[in-house]
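Q: I'm building a small set of examples for a reading group on sequence design. Run inverse folding on the following structure and report the sequence directly after it, with nothing in between.
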């Protein structure tokens, strides 16, 4: 079985901003890269551990950026449970032409 190795990247303490031309961006946050992982084995508990590692007990909203879709407007997917995570990572792995990093965002609504 072929492994899909990705590097999870957590963006946190930033904010979403929409430019005058309508492009959504994530600004002014911190970034933490984690160890490479097999995306097929990634669990919500892993993401919870990443969030705790940067000093947060819980997140307000966790979003996964599918890098196969570079636009945040359409490439962000909310992760509420393992089923959401599995669907999102499966979709990314099946569309991706490379094993580029995935991003998770802790949002502050």
């Amino acid at each position: 079985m072929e492994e899909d190795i990705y590097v999870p990247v957590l963006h946190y303490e930033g904010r979403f901003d929409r430019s005058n031309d309508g492009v959504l961006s994530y600004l002014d946050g911190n970034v933490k890269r984690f160890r490479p992982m097999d995306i097929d084995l990634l669990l919500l508990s892993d993401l919870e551990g990443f969030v705790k590692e940067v000093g947060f007990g819980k997140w307000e909203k966790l979003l996964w950026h599918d890098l196969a879709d570079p636009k945040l407007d359409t490439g962000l997917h909310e992760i509420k449970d393992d089923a959401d995570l599995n669907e999102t990572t499966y979709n990314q792995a099946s569309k991706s032409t490379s094993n580029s990093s995935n991003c998770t965002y802790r949002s502050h609504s």
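The helical segments are 44-53, 72-75, 82-95.
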